[in-house]
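Bench log, entry 3. Co-assembly request; chain sequences pasted below exactly as received.
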Amino acid sequence: MAKEPHPDRDLIQGEWTERSLVEKLLEPVEKPPPRPWKVVLAVGFALTLAWLYAIFVTFVQGLGTWGINQPVAWGYDIVHFVWWIGIGHAGTLISAILVLMRQNWRDSLNRVTEAMTLFAVLCAATYPLIHMGRPQHFYWVMPYPTHMALWPQYKSPLSWDVLAIMTYLTISTLFLYLGLIPDLALLRERSTGWRRKLYGWLSLGWTGNAVHWQRYRAVYVLLAGLATPVVISVHSVVSMDFAYGLVPGWHLTVFPPFFAAGAIYSGFAMALTLIIPLRRWYRLEGVITDRHLDWMAKVTLASGLGVAYIYLLEIFIAWYSGEPAEWAQQLWRMTGPYAPYYWAMMLINVVLLQTLWFPRFRKNLTWLFLFSILANVGMWLERFVIVVISLSHDFLPGNFHLYYPTWVDWTLFLGTIGFFLFGLALFIRIFPPIAVAEMVHLFHKLRGH
Amino acid sequence: MLYGYMAYFDTPEALLSALRALKKEGYRRLEALTPNPVEGIEEVLGGDGRIPWVAFFLGVLGAGLGLFLQVYTTLDYPHNAGGKPLLGWPAFIPVTFELTILTITVGIFLYLLYINGLPLAAHPAVRAPRYVEVLLDRYGVFLYATDPRFDPEATRALLQALGAEVEEVRRD
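Structure output for the full assembly:
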């Protein structure tokens, strides 16, 4: 009896054997890199150096070098902290939630997006650290016995945040590493010299034992199930840093789902921004197909619609609550000196987003790439609206102050983008950007074994 | 010194039927080496139901630790925050949750390494000349020479009868 063709058979396109597929997927690691890789690495490295210099200036001269003031005490650093954390979320989402839902299309995407998560969370974590001004005392947020018998205040979302971010960083690193182990064993057998030593150490002596594989899958799915609620919880906790405060524009119960939707939206947008060039430069069209990009665009649309809905809800709530400070804040967003930022956010995240309903826009890679960058700008603007615009206009007119970022603020931002690109470029040179063992397994399933 | 035989099969089905045959013949010291998880291997080599239970107990431990941490530190340094009750348990949910997940994650990862005997510095099967193929597209059985049923001639003949390519693995 002839077997029904697998419904996902077009997820791997072209004529492959296991061996040629593996050769293809290991190319980024084993073959000399293409020219754009060198450009990305060089630009990333230069920006990383500028970033280190800006951190140096911050530590030596103090936070006075930043544009923060009263009442805008949470300036660019918190804007960027929330922005980066949000970007991190799509990685865990693709790897964890889609594992649980048995979505085969995740297999080509999970490695590079998990790496994206790792570096995005690292970028994010630096902002609260340097915002402290005295980073050498960061351990004060940890519970440790002191001679002053002081403990962290566990009823404060700020201390929840510390634990949420650290749990998130740990679980996404372990998840990434666990997924890498079989590929590292393969690379170990295929390389020589110091690389063989490196992969040998990192692969922990994985042999491919079938019993080990069974336990490995059980743990992998279990970790996916655990990472899923963590993703949602992390950005919800981040949103509570705001929602716990009384500042008009922050004090909303809708913040946790608002932030989670925004995180998925910006994360998928960043994943598209990275994957579209990666696929072209490394000629990966056979494994990252148009269908993959189409699905990512659909998830971007779905989460973006959640964000757009809450923008409109915010306006309604501000009006309907009859809270004067809340309504004044909403009008200040729409008509005040920051209005261009607000309307640019609305244009991108509400209006331009609607293009993704239409297959001809979703399938147009130029537009998809352009939109993915715009969506990240839009989400950056959203964080700017929440942090800076809300703080600059609180209850007392005598308090109102605008916020002017300095060159240090800008360098810290561009620097993390550089570090992100630099880290990712190095990552895909050392570790395969597509999970090889997963893909071979998928290839097997699709070919009807 | 002979470590054992490495037998290569082309499909997971061939591997499974070979494993069944070997078990029937009374071979015990053998390992299946595959490039990806093979469905149905539990029936032949035995499954492992411990992982969910270990995860559950790690979770209970983590939740207990998380709650204990917060209750203890709050009682040790009582602090009136906005008139909230001293042990306002809803405020303790996020930290308890995160610590539960953190404990399970780290614990189950270490447990996986433990039951799989990793990290492992050296494994005899890796010495098979074409070992890399079982990480790529072939399915291997490694039969230890220490198996009581092992016989250089008969075992090789049996493996070949099962459709395998057989390689000797020895320390040179």
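Chain A has a mean pLDDT of 89. The radius of gyration of chain A is 23 Å.
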